[in-house]
Structures are given as C-alpha cells and as structure tokens.
Design a protein that fits this description.
The chain is 78% helix and 0% strand. By secondary structure, the protein is mainly alpha-helical. It has 2 domains: 37 residues; 216 residues, MetI-like fold (Orthogonal Bundle). The N terminus is likely disordered.
C-alpha cells in the first residue's frame, strides 16, 4: 500500500472510517479541554467563596468580576496595567540582552565561561527583592529601582537556560559549522542559536514569569513615587481600603496578561521556530 493511497484513505477498512463523536472531538481539542478546566476552576472558586462566606477573606467570583468590570470601565485598572507593562517590557528586554551577551561571551571564550559560572552561582540564588534597599540608595524611589531588580531577576535564569542549550548542541552540528568556516558570533547565531532555541525559549518564558513576580513584589513593598504605580501598587492600595474583591481583580489581571503572553506571543514564536524546524510536535 502506497503512502499516497493510505493518506487518501483508499485502503482503510470501512469500519475504521467513522465520524468522531462530539465527545471525542471535544476531548481531542486542546482549546475545549482548557475551557472546561477554566469553567471547573470558576465553579470551584464560587462554591468555595460561598462556603467561606466572608468577602474580606475570600470574595466570590461574581463580586470579583463585578469589581473588575467597574475598575476597567473607570479606566483605573487599564492605566495601572499599562504602567506595569511599560516597566516590565523595558526591564525584561534589558535582562534578556544582558543574559545573551554574557552567554555569548561565555560560549566563545574560556574567561567568559568562568565569569558566567561565578556570576550565576553568586546572583541566581539571591532574591531580587533583597536588592531593593540597595536599589533605593542607588536609584531613588521610582521606576529605575524597579527596573534594576527586574533585570537582576531575569538575567540569571535566562542566561543559565541559554548556556545549557548551547552546551547541549551536538558535536556533529558544531563540526558542520566549523567546516563552513564559521567562528565567533557567526558560529553562535547560525549554528548554536537555532539548535538550542528550545532551551532559549524556555529561558525566555521563565524570565517573563520572574519579571512579573519581581514587579508585583517590588510595588507591594514600596510602590513608586508620587503615589502612582502599576498593578502591584493597585493591589496594595485596594488591600488598605479593604476592597478585597478589587485585590482579586488585580491578581486576575496579572493572570490574564500572563496567559495571553504565553498563549499568543510565546506560542507564535514557538510555532514559527521549534515547531517549524521539527524540534517539537
């Protein structure tokens, strides 16, 4: 039986040619499965809040969504989200660039390897929030301090993932690059980066998650100057005002942004790179 005939279904027995049931179609759909899980979590949230019966401890999903709609309509929550996104994009880009430069230096020179190993051993275990006192002394109360600690939080896990990916590239691919006369940056970007991109993408995802954690924690600790700030400061303010449903609305906004970036931005990059290159199915 030829591949073409098999693909066309010419030699497939009639009993195997059946239409999938609705249940099977839903089960085989990743979007449907995720939607079902979200509905299940929403119902569990509502039921648990009804059991607790204390809006100051655990507001219901209905109250949270009502508060969410209210602050979105007033424009307060979108402005806070935009403020957070502006800071996090700048800091995240800075952390990724720093990690990339350190890793390229490490993979092309022996002193660079030693430097990366020392720096990651020293700074990767160090919580970014522990650097806030120094950041306040060096940069003052404001966005530069937050950017500094986010860059610290992003750089080391991204650098470790990139370096691990580079070291995992097979010797065959390395020899192919050498045979073509590639060296230095050309060797890194034409051989190592494509081969190690699954690890690089994982590092970018981890760095993005760390950047959000650091941003929210930093704003919860000291906010920013002039009483304004992003989502972390929004959550802190609403906690002080005992608007706990709005605290949950702020947390929900962080989750929504994270899901959108993961499901749209990183998914797009993944499909255009590792999936297209046959590294993931």
């Amino acid at each position: 039986m030829s591949y073409k005939a098999e693909a066309d279904g010419a030699d497939i027995p009639d009993e195997m040619k059946r239409t999938l049931s609705l249940h099977e179609k839903l089960y085989n759909s990743a979007a449907a499965r995720k939607l079902f899980l979200l509905i299940f979590l929403a119902i569990a949230w509502q039921l648990y809040s009804m059991r607790v019966d204390n809006p100051l401890m655990f507001p219901s999903l209905v109250d949270t969504m009502a508060g969410f709609v209210e602050v979105v309509r007033s424009g307060e929550l979108p402005l806070r989200a935009l403020a957070s996104l502006r800071v996090i994009v700048v800091a995240y880009a800075g952390g990724v660039i720093l990690a990339g430069l350190l890793t390229v230096f490490a993979i092309t020179t022996r002193p660079g390897t030693d430097l990366l190993e020392i720096l990651t051993s020293m700074f990767n275990p160090l919580p970014a929030i522990a650097l806030l006192p120094l950041a306040l002394l060096w940069f003052g109360l404001g966005y530069p301090s937050i950017i500094f600690v986010i860059v610290h939080a992003v750089s080391w896990p991204v650098a470790l993932n990139i370096y691990t990916g580079f070291m995992g590239v097979s010797s065959t691919l390395r020899m192919v690059g050498r045979n073509y006369g590639l060296s230095g940056f050309a060797f890194v970007f034409r051989i190592l980066v494509p081969a190690a991109f699954p690890h690089i993408l994982t590092g970018l995802k981890i760095g993005w998650a760390f950047s959000w954690r650091t941003l929210i924690a930093a704003e919860l600790v000291f906010g920013v100057s002039s009483g304004s700030g992003g989502l972390g400061w929004f959550i802190y303010e609403k906690k002080n005002q005992l608007d706990i449903n709005l605290v949950f609305a702020g947390l929900l906004t962080v989750i929504i942004i994270g899901v959108l970036v993961e499901g749209v931005v990183f998914k797009f990059i993944e499909e255009r790179t590792v999936v297209r290159w046959g590294m993931k199915f």
